[in-house]
Amino acid sequence: MHPNYWRRGIAKIAAQLVIEFLFTKQNYKNIKVAYCTGNEKSKGLIEKLGFKQYKVNKNAYERYNKKVDEFVYILSNEDWINKLLKWKRNYMGFWDKLKKYISSDSNNNIIKESHDKNDFEEKVEISEKIIKSSSFAYEIDYNNYETIEKIKEEFIAFDVETTGLSALNDEIIEIGAVRFKNGYITERFSTLINPKIPIPIEATKVNHITNEMVKNAPTSNEIILKFVEFFGDALQSSGTIIIAHNANFDMGFLTEFLKKNYRENTSIRYADTLKLSRKTLSGLVDYKLNTVANHFEIHNLNAHRAVSDAETCGNVLLKLLPLKQEENIKIKAKRESKRLDETEAIIATYIQNIIMSENDDIEFLGFDKNTNGYITINYLYTFLKYKLTKNGIYIIVKKEDAEKTGLQTEICSINEGGTENLRVYISEIFDIDLIKEYILKIYKKCMKDAKGYINNSKYAREKAYEVLNGMNTYTDSELKSCMEKIKNEKIVFPSINIKNTVISREQITINPINTRIDISNIKECKEYWSKEFEKGLDLWIKGEELRKDGKYEEAIDVYNQSRETGYCSSPLYESYSMVYHKIKDYDNEIAILEEGISRLKKEKANISNLETRLNKAITSKYNLIEKERAKIESEKIKEEKRLFNLEQKRIEKEKRKIEKENTIIEGRHIIQMDDDGNIINEFVSIAEAVRQTGINSKSIRDTAKGVQKHAGGFCWQYKD
Fold this sequence. Notes:
It contains 26 helices and 18 strands. The protein is α+β, with helices and mostly antiparallel strands. The termini are far apart. The chain has five domains: 3-114, Aminopeptidase; 133-335, Ribonuclease H-like superfamily/Ribonuclease H (Nucleotidyltransferase, domain 5, 2-Layer Sandwich), CATH 3.30.420; 349-488, no CATH class; 505-625, Tetratricopeptide repeat domain (Serine Threonine Protein Phosphatase 5, Tetratricopeptide repeat, Alpha Horseshoe), CATH 1.25.40.10; 665-718, Orthogonal Bundle (Arc Repressor Mutant, subunit A). Helix 14 packs across helix 18, helix 22 (570-582) packs parallel to helix 24 (608-662) and helix 23 (586-602) runs antiparallel to helix 24 (608-662).
């Protein structure tokens, strides 16, 4: 994968799709995958996908002249299905696909011995029902300052012990709840419940609740009124917030419990201390309730009993809230720093109006301001950028669309898309109408891609709302107000001040001195692809490590070795460019970039970044030439000035000699004046002026000659 696309979660999605294809379409029983020593990122991805370590092959491969181990992992068809069931919230998009495969192909072998077709479909249905039942409970926004402050005032910590893990098939055997007000416990609710079904041994091992203990306990129906009385307004969305650790589990049982035993509609808001601790704490071995409690030195005296766990959960929350609120203050400050100024906001609302006039779907439309000053317009993903600069306001537009506008343009930087894009400068708000068609085109494409992600699962949609929460958005009233302002007032934009001078290649000459073999001796891609590609890639990676360590000459040597294998990629030539630009060897930079562009054109690869770097290198070389020329010119002028001053000094010396010879004994009369030319005094000589005023003789003389303006705060002039 090209480095430009790293850290976006693409590899994980791709791997999931490959796994799905192999199990559902190719009927594989097992899939094996391996990584080598030093590739810890791959290890993390492999384990996230559900693979288990199978074996280790010692000294399996040689990398950088060193033997490395190979770690082999395996994923069975059965484990994959179980993983999907476990991850039901995140991967609901797979259910329809899987059921389709099962129903459409009678010979499909996706369901193995322990998972026949009916059993699997039943589990799918159950999973879907659990998701639906959670519609009774809504998780709070942890980044909302006001909500966190409300929780501090009052909340109910809640925990259940159950016969198993399924909210639909298993039953609650104990409920524990503790009400906290302003940091103190005010009420407790605790009861065992007769589930009317046997408690499995596995459950008893965890919670220590036996069948004997619940035999005479009340049933769910018998305790419901007391339960409702204790919880009170917490069963309504505007009321007290309920807290639990791993709340999805507890809320699943709670909502199912209420549906079975309580006829009134309920709407619960809850917070999860598991999620909150993961967000605020780092470095813990795990985030189980007792682990987090021990971190805060909170002792759970009766772990895995409902009321004790609930109390511990509440005390943990009281420790977490200040940490989260501190984080929220930072988030708020960050948002404020991203707030658009008046001109930026006017542009944003105008673009939003263009979109709304053609498309009503702006659910995930938002505006963001990054640290580099770009305002990004997003439909979950960025589809447009603009920036206010000292040279004017510009919008980044695809080159072919930018050239159609008739507006002033400028080449983009690499980060702005290189030669594929242009900066389009706008002198007034209505200039945006000239790129209206382009805005709508890229908006619709972005919206389509975003919808594909958002509709994949409930989890994806929740994440989308989190992203939107950190952006600027405008209401209908704000939009209307802004459009009225645009209509009735003249909006003044900064004047456009760009040179837009592009230095051509013909304006410079280069003399690169290098040790690279001639391009004619390098193998073509078709010759090296299968044999030498990996070698060339490894060398480039090694060169990158050297470059990042500041070992530029060594890096160039390794890049040359990579190039000589026949390795041809845009990143390699970009690496060359970065090193040569760093050491200001523009001749070699231009030469290698021209080679890269020529080679990659044959491969029909994207060369926009290389073209942008080439333009930059040409400009740098031109400026260097101009600097040298200016330096030579400056030295010439300096020398001419030096010779002129020497001649002036000679003339002045001769003049003084003549004056001295002609001076009478009385001396040369000198006049003392103010700045307006009014005569203050007249002296028969400078010596007499010094005697009477105490002012330095040289200063008086230099003032009289015009060398300086004042002496002793006065103007001086020879009378003659």
